[in-house]
Specification:
This protein is an alpha/beta fold. It has helices spanning 2-10, 33-42, 60-65, 81-91, 136-149, 164-172, 182-185, 191-202; strands spanning 16-21, 47-52, 70-74, 94-99, 117-121, 155-159, 177-179. Bound molecules: zinc ion.
Length: 203
């Protein structure tokens, strides 16, 4: 993990996106706060921690303490999204709110003023290597319009199935942050070359 973070840093990545999965909210299990704390020591890049877990309100403080710059929770995973976003900010990180592909973007509207990041999932969360769901573009456009209408400077992030080939359309739809795993780490030309392809695609 430290080597992977170092390769991204050397290649010019802006952030490290960390997918935390609990085996309940999504059918896969990854890692918890200890790994985030270890990663915090291994890179200077901001850690963008995406919590795909049930009851994130019980855990957010642990991830802030572990060194997360952003902590993002799913609207589908908590009965108290507003309180959870406030807890993240109070603990000292930037709060983010995410939605799954089947969730209507209007559900996020009540929380847009309290979030520093809005995350649109463009695959069904749980596993890497999936294909981008095209209807996510419409959600990005709708959320871009909603953020602009509020004068919000929150980041609009898209996560899942992003490759240099579709990055331009996603950026044009209004995304400010693109998350890529497979397209960076499995590029036969290497991590730095992959990141350069992304930069060129959205330039
Ligand atoms: Zn993610």
């Amino acid at each position: 993990m430290a080597d992977a973070a170092a390769a991204a840093e050397a290649g010019g990545a802006d952030w490290i996106h960390v997918d935390v999965m609990d085996g309940h909210f999504v059918p896969n299990l990854t890692f918890g706060p200890k790994m985030v704390a270890d990663l915090r020591k291994a890179t200077r890049l901001p850690l963008d921690v995406h919590l795909m877990i049930e009851r994130p309100e019980d855990w957010v403080a642990r991830y802030v303490e572990a060194g997360a710059a952003y902590v993002t929770v799913h609207i589908e995973a908590t009965p108290d999204a507003g309180g959870t976003l406030a807890s993240i900010r109070q603990a000292g990180a930037r709060p983010g709110i995410a939605l799954n592909p089947e969730t209507d973007p209007s559900r996020l509207v009540p929380y847009l003023d309290r979030a520093d990041l809005v995350l649109v999932m463009s695959v069904h969360p749980g596993f890497g290597g999936q294909s981008f769901i095209p209807s996510a573009l419409e959600k990005v456009r709708a959320l871009r319009a909603a953020l602009d209408a509020r004068g919000s400077s929150a980041e609009l992030e898209v996560d899942g199935g992003i490759k240099p080939e579709n990055a331009k359309d996603i950026a044009r739809a209004g995304a400010s942050v693109l998350v890529a795993g497979s397209a960076v780490y499995l590029d036969p030309d290497g991590v730095s070359a992959a990141l350069a392809k992304f930069r060129n695609a959205v330039a």
